[in-house]
């Protein structure tokens, strides 16, 4: 049972004054979806305002039945949209049932005092009497809880919730509540991470846990052999959920195991590295490596939930943090925001929401998701020429340097934040690897560059000499 909005309508619910209309409009723009405000539709259809409808024949009861009809119509739109519902819509059982069946329902949270401050003095028919208002708030709270797949207060929170991402320090302790459904659960964990967080994860999952499978730490987890051992050990039936606990290598292989086991079962990603929390565990790409290349066998299989607990980064070695920081700088350049200046937990949240929005807009990597490759064409070429002995963050730092230079932009941010150092690799091998890049056409790489900070340009073709010179400038000696 998915908690995300991929291929589903997003319905925003919440009490009066929560800002569902403004937030809904912003969310729709961010996800490239149509926005439908149900109250506006009702007013347009009736030709009179909601206060007039409440005051007219049949009062609130007649209004609720109009509202229900309008919501059911909106939910039957073929293209997934963002709908903002009136505060009292959830009091109708038919609406609650329809939301559970065909929408990802997100509660826009607001506390009672703020709601009253915003609603008092307005012409809202149900905000005329303070004690009635307070009573109604208490009565509706359980109805919102009943329908909500996720909840949020701000813009990034809504995007994260729409992507099925629960991000909070201490989330690991709540894993039992956060893994949807009530079927059996098995954990696939990086062996090293299992030693640190495996017990806590199992305790949090309680009686649902049927076993923990250890995967080799690092890229070895993404081998055919490691995947085969995992398949051999899995006992889950189709009601089961596989929880992936570890960095990007773990979520990649466990996600792929879930995509293929019994032709696809649910999985939950619990990323424990910075790379995993801002990148690898978001967007549904799963893969293993083959001898012919990295990530060659894989599937798009979005986790039913992603649980990001920034507190898990406390035990992460500095070198692994540096790998993630390179991705944070990349995201900041794409977003046009200095994410690298934020405290780490805030940077993780902004960055995860940025990637989640792009992936919700382009889940199968057919268009704008390509921007996430900024700097990576060069990075992959250097890694291949170094037989993958080069830390990914170091390669990405160099790749970003080349991308900024070719974009004609200032490279100070990359230099100050990531201190890129030229690497000693064979120049011809690096060039050959770059020409083999997945994004190359007829041996000419198509690059992601920036027009300006926050303005990516995709599929840029440059003269091969210029690209080769940029690559050479990253190589020592
Ligand atoms: N699917 C995607 O969209 C996507 C995106 C980016 C990267 N990736 C993949 O991610 C992989 C890299 O992931 P990674 O950088 O997370 O590396 P990783 O999974 O290899 O983890 C790095 C190391 O950190 C250790 N570790 C993990 N969490 C820890 C913690 N909390 N405390 C202490 N040690 C911890 C692990 O044992 C491991 O040795 C690559 O295979 C890459 O292809 C996938």
How does this model look, in words?
The chain is an alpha/beta fold and 477 residues long. It has three domains: 146 residues, P-loop containing nucleotide triphosphate hydrolases (Rossmann fold), CATH 3.40.50; 150 residues, Rossmann fold (3-Layer(aba) Sandwich), CATH 3.40.50; 105 residues, Dehydroquinate synthase-like, alpha domain (Up-down Bundle). The protein contains 20 helices and 15 strands. The strands form four sheets. The protein has a six-stranded parallel β-sheet, sandwiched between helices. Strands 2-3-1-4-5 form a five-stranded parallel β-sheet, with helices on both faces. It has a two-stranded antiparallel sheet with strand order 11-12. A hairpin with a 2-residue loop joins strand 11 and strand 12. Helix 8 crosses helix 15, helix 12 crosses helix 13 and helix 13 runs parallel beside helix 15. It is globular, with a radius of gyration of 25 Å. The termini are far apart. It binds nicotinamide-adenine-dinucleotide (NAD). Nicotinamide-adenine-dinucleotide (NAD) binds next to helix 10, helix 12, helix 13 and helix 14.
């Amino acid at each position: 049972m998915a908690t995300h909005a991929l291929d589903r309508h997003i319905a925003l619910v919440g009490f009066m004054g929560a800002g569902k209309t403004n937030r809904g409009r912003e969310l729709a723009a961010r996800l490239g979806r149509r926005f439908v405000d149900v109250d506006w539709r009702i007013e347009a259809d009736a030709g009179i305002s909601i206060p007039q409808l409440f005051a007219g024949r049949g009062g609130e009861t007649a209004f609720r039945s109009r509202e229900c009809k309008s919501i059911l119509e909106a939910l039957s739109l073929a293209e997934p949209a963002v709908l903002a519902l009136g505060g009292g819509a959830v009091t109708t059982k038919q609406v609650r049932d329809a939301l559970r069946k065909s929408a990802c329902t997100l509660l826009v949270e607001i506390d009672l005092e703020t709601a009253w401050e915003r609603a008092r003095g307005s012409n809202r028919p149900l905000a005329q009497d303070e004690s009635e208002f307070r009573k109604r708030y208490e009565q509706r709270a359980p109805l919102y809880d009943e329908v909500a797949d996720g909840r949020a207060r701000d813009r990034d929170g809504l995007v994260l919730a729409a992507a099925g991402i629960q991000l909070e320090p201490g989330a690991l302790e709540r894993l039992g509540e956060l893994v949807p459904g009530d079927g059996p659960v098995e954990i696939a964990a990086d062996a090293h991470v299992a030693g640190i967080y495996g017990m806590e994860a199992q305790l949090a999952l309680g009686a649902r846990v049927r076993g923990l499978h250890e995967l080799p730490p690092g890229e070895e987890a993404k081998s055919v052999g490691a995947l085969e051992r995992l398949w051999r050990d899995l006992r889950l039936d189709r009601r089961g959920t596989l929880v992936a606990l570890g960095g990007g290598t773990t979520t990649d292989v466990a996600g792929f195991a879930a995509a293929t086991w019994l032709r696809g079962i649910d999985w939950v990603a619990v990323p424990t590295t910075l790379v995993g929390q801002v990148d690898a565990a978001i967007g549904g790409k799963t893969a293993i490596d083959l001898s012919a290349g990295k990530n060659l066998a894989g599937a798009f299989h979005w986790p039913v939930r992603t649980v990001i607990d920034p507190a898990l980064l406390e035990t992460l070695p500095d070198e692994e943090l540096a790998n993630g920081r390179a991705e944070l700088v990349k995201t900041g350049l794409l977003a046009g925001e200095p994410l690298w200046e934020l405290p780490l937990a805030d940077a993780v949240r902004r960055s995860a929401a940025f990637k989640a929005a792009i992936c919700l807009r382009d889940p199968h990597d057919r268009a704008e998701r390509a921007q996430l490759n900024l700097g990576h064409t060069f990075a992959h070429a250097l890694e291949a020429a170094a037989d993958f002995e080069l830390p990914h963050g170091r390669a990405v730092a160099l790749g970003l340097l080349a991308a900024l230079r070719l974009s004609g932009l200032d490279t100070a941010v990359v230099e100050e934040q990531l201190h890129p150092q030229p690497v000693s690799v064979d120049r011809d091998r690096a060039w050959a690897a770059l020409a083999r890049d997945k994004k190359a056409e007829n041996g000419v790489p198509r690059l992601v560059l920036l027009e300006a900070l926050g303005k990516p340009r995709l599929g840029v073709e440059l003269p091969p000499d210029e690209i080769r010179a940029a690559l050479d400038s990253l190589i020592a000696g």
